[in-house]
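Final report, closing paragraph on structural work. Over the funding period we assembled a curated collection of sequence-structure pairs, and we close with a single example.
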Amino acid sequence: MMIIDPHTHVWVNDPRFPWPAENPSPPAEDRTAEMLLEQMAAHGVEKTVLVQVIHYRWDNRYVVDVIGRYPEKFMAVGRINPEDPAAPDHLSEWTEQGVHGVRLSPSVDASGDWFADPARMNPIFARAESLGVPLLLLTRPPRLSDLVPLLDRHPDLDVVIDHMSDAHPGDAEERRLLTDLARYERVCVKISHTWSISDEGYPWADTHGLVEEVYQAFGAQRIMWGTDWPVCLSKAEYGQTLSVVRDHMSAFIAAEDMEWVLGRTALRLWPFGAGGS
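Its predicted structure, as stored:
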């Protein structure tokens, strides 16, 4: 079974990849691709998708550098400024450099209302759709209602809901908002962040009911695990984010489905070894 981690972040303090002026407090410690490769090797993870870390804002040069040096191990998802009218063209430019996907992170307060503006969002969704790259969405469940009309307008776009939208396991309405998206056949969900939304220690059993509900709604071919390394390290070891799925969720994820959850779903969206974008 090939194991592919579809969600990690890397960064480095290096003047070749400067921190943007709007980030006055960049991370002091590096989390480089080489450090990640060590974790992958130790836990049998074959390939990884690098998701552009917010510290760099819209400058994706470090992940572009990494995928250029390790094309057999990494693919990348970039960021663009969603409030910039030129955002679709920026997505095209980064895609030409090997980036395969874009991530949007609208908050649920007024600062994220740009996501509800069709004039801003439709061109970005349309460009990702035409380029054939997935769009990742990091947001909380209340914002998912703004996604629905965009999905209706762009049926050929692959959309990935990161971290189950951090729906609270005990909130029925948040769970409904998430699982209702299963009617869109090109929406996938990462069943990650159980360590973040749990009120318990490993294996975060109070979240397994939510994961099972997502699994039943979307099916194995539209869900995938993910570490969120190094963010996970505040609450979980790299290996635990894998073993919680492989060893503990096997109680409700069928054996024949586990290969999809641990690798094949991600491989369908990120064609490693197939020329990237």
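The chain has a mean pLDDT of 97. Residues 255-269 form the longest helix (15 residues). We thank the funder for supporting this effort.
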